[in-house]
Amino acid sequence: MTYNDIRKIFLTYFEQHGHKIVPSASLIPNDPTLLFSVAGMVQWKGVFQGTEQPIAPRVANVQKCIRAGGKHNDLEDVGFDGRHHTFFEMLGNWSFGDYFKEGAIEMSWELLTKVIGLDPNRIVVTTHISDDEATAIWKKITGKDAIRLDKDNWWSAGETGPCGPCTEMHYDFGPDVPGGLPGSPDEDGGRFVEIWNDVFMQYDRDANGNLTPLPKQNVDTGAGLERWAAVLQNKLDNYDTDLFANLKSAVSDLTGVKETEENKPSFKIITDHLRAVGFAIADGVIPSNADRGYVIRRILRRAMRHGQILGHKGELLSALYPALVKEMGDAYPELKTQEKHVVEIIKNEENSFADMLQNGMKLLESELPKVNNNILPGEIAFKLFDTYGFPLDLTQMILRDKKMDVDVDSFEKCMKEQKERSRADTRGTRVLWESQTDLPATDDSEKYEAETNRTAKVLSILRGEEFVKSANPGDAVEIALDHTPFYGTQGGQVGDMGVFKIGDKIVMNVAETNRVGNVVIHKGTLTEPVSIGDEVIPEINLTVRQQTARAHTATHLLQAALRQVLNEDVEQRGSKVAPDSVRFDFSFGRAMSAEEKQSVEDLVNKWIAQNLTVSHEEMDIESAKKRGAMALFGEKYGDRVRVITAGDVSCELCGGTHVYHTGEIIKARINKEKSISSGIRRITMSVGTLAE
Ligand code: SER
Q1: Which residues is 532 bridged to in the sheet?
Q2: In ligand 1, which atom is closest to the CA atom of 92?
Q3: What is the pLDDT of residue 429?
Q4: Closest CA relative to residue 27, chosen from 221, 228, 324, 277
Q5: Helix axis angle, 339-367 relative to 291-309, nearest 10°?
Q6: Rounded to 10 degrees, what is the CA torsion of 240, 246, 252, 255?
Q7: Mind spelling out the 3-state secondary structure of 632-647?
Q8: 574 contacts: CB under 8 Å, gap ≥ 6
Q9: Which residue among 14, 45, 155 has the greatest number of ligand 1 atoms within 8 angstroms of its CB, and so is best to mutate?
Q10: First-to-last CA distance in the chain?
Q11: How far is the CA of 229 from the centre of ligand 1 (A)?
């Protein structure tokens, strides 16, 4: 039975048992608590929690999964046994308040023993220590006594969210294979392999670990397709099943190297990583320095190192991708439709790392003879990271072969020092303000209302590097007030300019407003003496405020237009919103054509001409998500969020200042579009009178 056969048999069985068959969800989950889809249930979280309606009471699919970061992370183990993968396919069936424990166990058992014909005597089952009900059901249906386990038989996708007790089915490869029963100290030996997990989703876990019963009793099952293939093809090693055998021969063809016992880990790592990198990029991930982009970059670099071990120079995963398409493109058509894009992105990434890998290896090899106690100093690992782009786990993987490790503590210390250096370089007086721990948070709740005439009290004055009680005309100072309508630079939007007055007299010109933690800092030059305790009237420059607001709303329109013209995977990676000017960084794998740039600009100007209403609303995060508001990945949002909506064109979570009608933007003009790093493009755009 091949992978293609198994997928078909599984889905047909559940279709015949009243399940709606749905395609795999994207590897990029709609869930900020997870980097990747780690299980089939990820897309059903809202259904379990009762915030979304199920599309049917019973559903089944084959889901693409990646477990390479966060709570579920198998990256380090890949290559060194026959069972671990970063990318894998999960067969799954779900009941949303329909059948529960008995139905789930009955169907799992029938499919395993009657449909695919496994020997019932070779199946061992486990249940949760607390779960007498599932244990009794197993006894009734099969006559088997379940092994009762604790933490192994409780399942959740993340630290919070739906969870519940589970029951696992393990296949016994027989007494010739070393390894003990599930739950025994040598359970990882390989004789028993978990082939299916039925989770009874009953609870919702909050951040404090409290369990609340879910509105309904649900079933969430998951079975690793690679393991089923291994069992059904009688292979102890998943990497010897048909799909992997074909991918490994593609590796041999490319590198001219045959697989041996010794180089087997490299074959496993390359084929595993090919799937993770290929599928992730096809779903819109771009290798980068943050979040899931960094996970994919690390995986790709590990694969390249193993290409190097096989003596291979030049492009590796990009050259192997067609073999992946051949093997899996029928089951996952996106591999084919995205082929050009994926190959291009991988090539870029491989080309930019190739020289660094060579040179970094030279450095590492020159350092190895000096190593004491088999521990590489953290400073060297840091240099490899900083100069040659070696992620820490890549260095560790290389050293693992030599039975060495990295001094991780000193590596982390170097990382921390570097962060502090760059903070000091770029943020000037920030450290000084950070030392003012007594200073209360500034109340800046008036910042969206713009015009206010309230007086505010001067709480702190920094002149040069010194906090002073009072300062004089001509002094360059930074001042914190008890409250302010000034918007301090954040979320990519530059802060306000304006003046402080006492009565009608201007006492300070504010050139810049920043934030340090929760304190708003006004930076500028005094025109009159000012002392701590003075009451001043902070007045923002409304022209500049309006120029910045129109640039910010235009940024949202730009993002919406890019997603419409290029594709839905375009994601914001950074931005700078200044008076009448926008810099917008986004994930996209190639240069935009002149026509695409024109279409984007035209679309933004069309929406400006339509004078769409821009609403600014505060709501709880759940309502915002329901409304489909776009969030920045990796950004932490509180319970209350602001949602900025422009007509039906754009809806984003955003703390910035905005216009009320798109017509206020007047005009937008794209000035430049260029690459800033592999897979990331930057657009600069003018708006308002500047664009005109
Ligand atoms: N979510 C469970 C698992 O991943 C069952 O699908 O094991």
Answers
A1: none
A2: 6
A3: 80
A4: 277
A5: 60
A6: -120
A7: CCCCCCCCEEEEEEEC
A8: 492, 584, 585
A9: 155
A10: 66
A11: 18
Rounded to 5°, angle at Cα 440 from 436 and 445: 135
303 alpha carbon – ligand 1 mean position (Å): 27
Comparing CA positions, the residue from 364, 366, 372 lying closest to residue 397 is: 364
* Rounded Cα gap, residues 292 and 279, in angstroms: 13
CATH architecture of 3-239: 2-Layer Sandwich (3.30)
Bigger pLDDT: 2 or 73?
Answer: 2
CA 196 to centroid of ligand 1, rounded, Å: 8
Which pLDDT score, from 0 to 100, does residue 691 have?
A: 86
User: What does the pLDDT look like over 545-560, one tens digit per residue?
Assistant: 999 999 999 999 999 9
Contact 197, 166 (CB under 8 A): yes
Confidence of residue 157 (pLDDT cuts 50, 70, 90): confident
Within 6 A (CB) of ligand 1 lie 39-41, 92, 155, 197, 199, 220-222
Judged against a pLDDT cut of 60, whether residue 427 lies above it is answered with no
Which tens digits make up the pLDDT trace of 587-603?
A: 998 899 999 999 999 99
For ligand 1, mutation pick of 166, 198, 219, 225 (most atoms within 8 Å of CB)? 166
pLDDT band of 426, cuts 50, 70, 90: very low
Q: Does domain 430-540 have CATH number 2.40.30.130?
A: yes
Cα of 107 to ligand 1 centre, how many Å? 16
Distance CA 359, CA 389 (A): 11
Residue 89 CA to ligand 1 centre (angstroms): 11
The Cα 487–Cα 551 span in angstroms is 15
CATH number 3.30.980.10 given to 546-687: yes
Task: Based on DSSP, count helices (H) and strands (E) in the chain, helices before strands.
Answer: 19, 29
Residue nearest to atom 2 of ligand 1 (CA): 222
